[in-house]
C-alpha cells in the first residue's frame, strides 16, 4: 500500500504515525507546506500557494491513499484528482480560528479521523476516533534522582513540571502560579518549551508531578506520555485528560482549584507515583494506532 501524506508542520505524534505504518509495510511519502522554520514564525498565504503545485506534481495513480494531516492541508488533498482522501484533524485546526476550513473540507473527504472524542461535538460529519499513540519504549519510568542528575536539577527540591511556554495565554500559567502559592509544601515550577522531544522523558521523570492548567486543549499528549512514565498528572478538565486518567492513581482532573492543590500536596508529601503505565500501556501504544489506521485505509480500497 502506498500513502501520500500532506502536513503543515510534522509533530512527534505524526512522525511516530509514519514510522509505525512503515514498520507495517506501508510506503509513505510526505509533503510539507513550506515556510515556518521556527515555532515563532507563521506561514503566509504565499507559502500555501507554493504548496499546491508540489501536491499536483507528486500525486499520481500509484498512491492508494492521500492523507491530509491537519485541516489546512485538506483543500490541497481535495483539489487533486486522486481518491480516496483521508483527513486527520489535530485539534487547533478544528477548535481554532481556521476551524471552518476543516469543517467544510471534512464534508468532501472519504474518511475523517479525530484523535479524541472531545473534538466530536465540533464536527458535523461521520468520523472515526483514532487516538495518537505514544512510543512506550521512549516514555517509560526512569529513576527520578538519576533523571535529575542528568539534567542538573536539585535532588531535594519539590518540582512541578509545567510543560508549556508560560506566555501562551490559553495555557493559563497564572493559575499554575496560584496553585503553587496555595500549597502546604514548598515547590518549584519548572517551565519547559524548547526541550527536544527525545529529552522529554527525562524531564518528566525528574519531576514530582506534571501540572496542567490550560483553559482549552484537544489533548494534551503530555498526559499520556507522563502516565507511561508513572509520573502523576494534576490537570484542569480539558481535552481527553479525564478519559485518559480516570483509572490512574495519584492523578487528578478537576476545575476546582482547591482539589488540585490538595492532590499536589498529597503527591509531594507522600512521594507518590502513578500506575499509568500498567493501566494505559496497550491502549495508547503507537502499535494500536497503526493497526487502526491500516484498517481504515483498507476499508477505503
Automatic annotation (TrEMBL):
Residues 175-271 form the Glycosyl transferase family domain. Keywords: Transferase. One of its GO terms (molecular function) is glycosyltransferase activity. The keyword Magnesium does not apply. It holds the Pfam family Glycos_transf_1. This is Group 1 glycosyl transferase. It comes from Natronorubrum bangense JCM 10635. The lineage of its organism: Archaea, Methanobacteriati, Methanobacteriota, Stenosarchaea group, Halobacteria.
Amino acid at each position: 500500500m502506498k500513502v501520500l501524506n500532506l502536513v503543515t508542520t510534522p509533530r512527534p505524534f505524526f512522525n511516530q504515525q509514519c514510522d509505525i505504518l512503515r514498520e507495517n509495510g506501508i510506503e509513505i511519502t510526505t509533503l510539507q507546506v513550506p515556510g515556518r522554520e521556527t515555532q515563532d514564525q507563521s506561514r503566509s498565504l504565499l507559502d500555501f500557494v507554493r504548496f499546491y503545485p508540489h501536491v499536483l506534481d507528486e500525486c499520481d495513480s500509484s498512491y492508494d491513499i492521500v492523507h491530509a494531516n491537519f485541516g489546512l492541508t485538506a483543500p490541497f488533498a481535495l483539489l487533486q484528482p486522486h481518491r480516496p482522501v483521508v483527513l486527520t484533524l489535530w485539534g487547533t485546526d478544528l477548535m481554532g480560528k481556521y476551524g471552518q476550513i476543516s469543517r467544510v473540507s471534512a464534508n468532501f473527504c472519504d474518511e475523517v479521523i479525530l484523535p479524541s472524542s472531545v473534538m466530536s461535538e465540533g464536527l458535523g460529519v461521520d468520523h472515526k476516533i483514532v487516538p495518537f499513540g505514544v512510543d512506550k519504549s521512549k516514555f517509560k519510568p526512569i529513576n527520578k534522582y538519576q533523571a535529575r542528575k542528568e539534567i542538573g536539577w536539585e535532588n531535594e527540591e519539590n518540582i512541578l513540571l509545567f510543560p508549556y511556554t508560560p506566555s501562551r495565554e490559553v495555557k493559563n500559567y497564572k493559575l499554575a502560579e496560584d496553585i503553587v502559592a496555595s500549597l502546604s509544601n514548598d515547590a518549584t515550577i519548572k517551565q519547559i518549551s524548547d526541550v527536544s522531544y527525545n529529552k522529554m522523558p527525562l524531564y518528566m521523570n525528574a519531576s514530582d508531578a506534571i501540572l496542567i492548567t490550560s483553559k482549552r486543549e484537544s489533548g494534551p499528549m503530555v498526559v499520556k506520555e507522563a502516565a507511561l512514565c508513572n509520573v502523576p498528572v494534576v490537570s484542569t478538565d480539558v481535552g481527553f485528560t479525564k478519559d485518559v486518567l480516570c483509572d490512574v492513581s495519584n492523578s487528578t482532573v478537576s476545575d476546582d482549584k482547591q482539589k488540585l492543590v490538595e492532590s499536589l500536596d498529597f503527591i509531594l508529601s507522600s512521594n507518590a507515583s502513578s500506575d499509568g503505565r500498567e493501566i494505559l500501556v496497550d491502549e495508547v501504544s503507537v502499535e494500536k494506532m497503526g493497526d487502526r489506521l491500516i484498517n481504515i485505509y483498507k476499508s477505503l480500497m
